[in-house]
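Example 172.
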Amino acid sequence: MINERMQNEINDQINAEFWSAYLYLSMSAWFTQKNLPGFANWMYVQYQEEMTHGMKMFRYIHERGGEVKLKPIAKVDTAWKSGADAFTATLNHERKVTSLINGLMDTAHELRDYATINFLNWYIDEQVEEEANAEDLLNKLKMIEKDPAALYALDKELSTRTFVDETVAPAE
Ligand code: FEO
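Predicted structure in complex with MU-OXO-diiron:
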């Protein structure tokens, strides 16, 4: 049975993951409106990934005999000054999520909840990747945003990103 404080904090993180999904879906819409379908696709895949991050926690609470309590999703921005501005917001948001996951890990250690420590390690690794991806694209965008040909090429590259649910084990 999961400790109630741990359960409540994971419930808050489910909300944060779904909020992230909503943010990236909003960015996907914005990039579509800016005629950058590759970036829109990249953000749409990001939205799908965030939903799986929340759902992995949703399943975990149930596995540990706890209660999932969904909360309202706060509003998100719907416009950004530029692509670089959107990716700056993405990077800042991912850094914030990393600190939230670290906070969950602190609680799990305090409670000596070894199962949750083990569970959260997946998110610790994932956040390294999330921050690196956002930073990489932000740096690229800063370099090329005023170069339409380079922007077109990067947009085309990002159109190939496909969604893979990394929260479930691959079929054997
Ligand atoms: Fe679920 Fe982007 O971290």
